Amino acid sequence: MAKVITDEKTIDELLDRSVVEVLPSKKELKAVLMSGKKIRIYIGTDATGTSLHLGHATNYIILEKFRKLGHEVIFLIGDFTSRIGDPTDKLAVRKQLTRADVNKNIKTWLKQIRPIINFDDKKNPVKIKFNHDWLSRLTFEDVVNIASNFTVQQMLERDMFEKRIKEEKPIYLHEFFYPLMQGYDSVAMDVDAEMCGNDQKFNALAGRTLLRKIKNREKFVFITTLLENPITKEKMMSKSLGTGVFLDENNINMFGKIMAQPDENIPQLFTDCTYLSLEEIEKINKQLVSGKVNPRDLKIKLAHEITKIYHGEKKAIEAQKHFEQVFSKKELPSEISEIKVSVGEFLIDVLVKNGLATSKADARRKVDQGGIKADNEVIRDWQLKLDKGFDGKILKAGKREFRKIKIVK
User: Fold this and answer.
1) Are the CB atoms for 59 and 196 separated by under 8 Å?
2) CATH code for 337-408?
3) Which overall architecture, per CATH, does domain 8-224 show?
């Protein structure tokens, strides 16, 4: 059994770095951590997609710090709650997934977070749980009893529900079940603490309420920072905005997407997504504010540090060299994948088929915005059909994607 570590400096950083709030208070949680008591803490993530991003990773980095201190940590996969759909930050009902959808999504999760969580430690192993194991067994009577601990008014306090009411958009009854089910996770696992982003605070507090009423015990709610642009307040990690840096990216794309982040995002990304000390990060922040250092140089260091975590030092160096070669020196990458294109094939179909656009609509948008080039010449016609004249040309989508065209009959 792992010994609980009570080093005060380590605990202070744990409670301050990337942390928005601790309920009931940081002081009370620090007292428990300093006492040497082993606590049980968890993070739950719904399996609504196949990829985890840097925003998720922030929480897992902190979870690993708790594990290294000797505490029991749980990686909870919401394979049941993801089928309900959390309405958090959604102004419309979220599509419900099938269990097959969920199982498909979680297949690569553990591989993606293995670089930041030690799943091989035998002394204090990470526990992996699935909330389908207990939520699927609840009877209707159980659900009614759980629901009796909350009021409709409490549910309607959620911002997204208030907005939907004002905009006369529907709120479905099953969406009220989500915080109840996530709250019941805390009861089923009998935890001491839950870690979550600020967008999950409502759900985490539902669990705190249920633990008090069902088991007459307290639960700490450990709320971490969300990755948000300090100027626009938009989420840094947003697939819909095209700003997400996902953990299953290859080293080249990961490095490039971090370099594409606005300069104002640099301080928080260093704090929440790297292992640099707070002292070193403070020096970087001062350099950024003073203007004595080119933000691009700081961003290269940031991209290197993050890419190194997920791909290793060698791959991080390779990605940096690739970036400097392609973007700084305006050269083509040394290796470009070849794609086979039939004579007369529509450009937008080629873009979608070869992963350069997510859909025909996305392909058309990229063409309209001047984001598609052939041998560095912008293509403006999204209805273009490729002919033999494109054979051997380099197709470029955005700043990072290159394909060599091979025209076939």
Assistant:
1) yes
2) 3.10.290.10
3) 3-Layer(aba) Sandwich (3.40)
SS3 78: strand
Number of CB atoms found within 10 A of residue 249's CB? 21
Alpha helices in 224-277 (DSSP H): 251-259, 266-273
Separation CA 53–CA 58 (nearest Å): 9
Backbone angles phi, psi at 45, to 5 degrees: -135, 130
3-state helix, strand, coil split of the chain in percent (to 5) is: 50, 15, 35
How many Å apart are CA 205 and CA 302, to the nearest integer?
Answer: 34
Q: What is the mean pLDDT of the chain?
A: 87
The Cα 42–Cα 72 span in angstroms is: 8
Q: Which two tokens stand for residue 371?
A: 């984001």
E strand or H helix that includes residue 346: strand 345-346
Q: Lowest-pLDDT range, 275-284, 309-318, 327-336?
A: 327-336
At residue 125, what is the residue type?
A: P
Q: pTM of the prediction?
A: 0.77
Q: Which sequence spans correspond to the domains of the chain?
A: 8-224, 251-328, 337-408
Number of H helices, E strands in the chain: 19, 13
Residue 170 to residue 147: CA distance in whole angstroms: 21
- Digit-coded pLDDT (tens) for 325-366: 877 666 667 677 888 888 889 999 999 888 888 888 888 888
- pLDDT given for residue 197 in this prediction: 87
CATH number of the domain located at residue range(s) 251-328 in this protein: 1.10.240.10
More confident residue, 176 or 15: 15
CB under 8 Å, gap of 24 or more: what pairs does 150-155 form?
A: 150/179, 150/180, 150/206, 150/209, 152/176, 155/179
pLDDT one-digit tens code per residue, 253-262: 899 889 888 8
